[in-house]
Hints:
It is a single chain. This protein has 604 residues and is an alpha+beta fold. Helix content is 58%, strand content 14%. The chain contains 15 helices and 14 strands. The protein has helices spanning 2-33, 46-60, 67-86, 92-106, 125-144, 161-177, 187-190, 194-220, 225-278, 297-303, 359-424, 430-462, 474-485, 505-522, 568-578; strands spanning 111-113, 121-123, 282-287, 292-295, 318-325, 331-342, 348-357, 470-473, 491-494, 500-503, 527-534, 537-543, 582-587, 593-600. The strands form four sheets. It has a five-stranded antiparallel β-sheet with strand order 4-3-7-6-5. It has a five-stranded mixed β-sheet with strand order 9-11-12-14-13, covered by helices on one side. A hairpin with a 4-residue loop joins β3 and β4. α1 (2-33) packs antiparallel against α6, α8 (194-220) packs antiparallel against α9 and α11 (359-424) packs antiparallel against α12. The chain is elongated, with a radius of gyration of 55 Å.
Amino acid sequence: MQIAAQDVGRLSRLLAGCAGLTVAALGTAGLLSTPADDREPLLSSPGAALPAAGLALCLLAPAGAGRVRRGVAYVLAVLAAAVGVAALSRHPAAGVAIVLSGLALAGLDVQLRRRPGDPARYRIADPLLVGASIITLVALVPRMFAPTFPDGRGPGSLMTPLHAGALLTLAVGALLARPEAGPLRTAAVAGPGVKVRRALPAVVAVPVIAALVSALAVRTGISRPAAAISTGAILAALAVLALVGFLVRSLEGADRKQRTLVAELHEQRDFADTLLQSMNEAVMVLDANYRVIDVNRRWRELTGHPGPTDPPALPPSGTGDWLVRRADGTDVLVLATMATIPDATGAPRGYVATYVDITDRKRAEDELSSRAAELTVSNERLQESNTRLEAALAFKNDLTSMLTHDMAQPISSIASLSELLHADWADLPDDIRLELVAKIDKNTNRLIKMTNDLQLLFRLDTGSVTARRTPVPLLEVVTSVTSELRAAGDVEVTVGEELSALADRQHVWHVVRNLLGNALAYGEAPVEVRAERQGECVVLIVEDAGPGIPEELVPGLFDRFMRGSGLGLFIVRHLVEANGGSVRYERTEPHGACLVTTWEAASV
Length: 604
């Protein structure tokens, strides 16, 4: 049935478009067929309005016409009405009919409600089209009875048959263009009075049909004019009586159906009210203007109001948290849902708002969120503690490994040499004694250096090392370290006297001491120390001619407790970075190791 209705709608709009084209063609043909001597001014001729009106109907007929298309059609319809106004002085009947038809086309899609909230709609185009049709038919009646007048002369024609036919075609096409509205709509859409409205065109048409029958009888000579008119009047009266009887019967049937529907509506309303009051959610029903129509028992309990009252604020469409103001001025948190009740056309007919008190649930959620936040903080703190414990454990293991390896050897050597001196002092010659004491002194200095490095390591690990940066002459520091290490013959120094680094002097000394000590201990002579100025930085390089550092050790070269370098390079990296510099390792060709430190240059 739905497919059949759609097909009927398409056919109706197609016929409306064809009617529009026909009207446009008739108007154009009438203008072209009029002799040049008899032509009226274009803007005051009724025929000039027909092409515009026909094109307007043709543009409005298809379903879903775009804005531009409708706009052009409305302009053409208003233009046709304006031409009709201009033609009123010479052709009153045709001018009025054209004005009504043009206004009907301009308001073809305008619908009005009888009263607010009423779903039934009425088109303003319907009475305009009916008025234009009646004027056209009435204007044709004197022409039908022209042979009855003396000498065969009829009265002056009020409207030409071409204009009358075009206007009637235009009215029928306008009705067909919107089959879902107006007199052509179905009973389900039109309501209980559809039979009465459908009968009204028949009531208008019966006298016209009777007049047409009488005129046909007169023109064909079947009957004399008086008899023909009397017969037509009698037929019209009988037809009107039959229509009145049909209408009365239809109204009685409609009244019975209405009483039945009213009873069903009362029953449905009682059921709906019972259902509304029995719901556990607070429900508020509003009309299309957001005025409260009804509320249920739970709404009164939630808000504290004894009856329906307009709320200070309504929730937005959809579902979400909302605050409802109670009668005592307090607010209650609810889960609000605002739903639209559409009418048959999809427009909002009313709204339903439901409220669910979520105060307890929100409180539980807040407590749960608070506990979860506290648990998250505790987990983060525990993770940090675990990280620190793991780092401390790794530090302890590395320190234990270094103490048992690096410090055990000099301590063991000192103990052995001291025991030998103590046991064989009287038998040992002076040169042997001096050699043994020198070895003890060397191992003691090694232990002292390790102890100082450990103290510095602990300070670096706790972050208590700060740099007091001042201009430091690099040549002076390198010379001091070389003298202390007694390596003047093995070290080539190429450092300009003017080169100074902006750093902590003690930190620079430790860096040079560790780099030069590692080069002398693990590399081969000659060891070269050189420095140069590069922009705003000073680069200090320590390079030896040894085998270099194995590739597998380079990624972790500056880590803590690096095998083969003790704490030296780890301390070097932290001290250089504490002064805003950097350190890196470079391999030299064909062999050797090169450690490059970069410092901020001191201003001259």
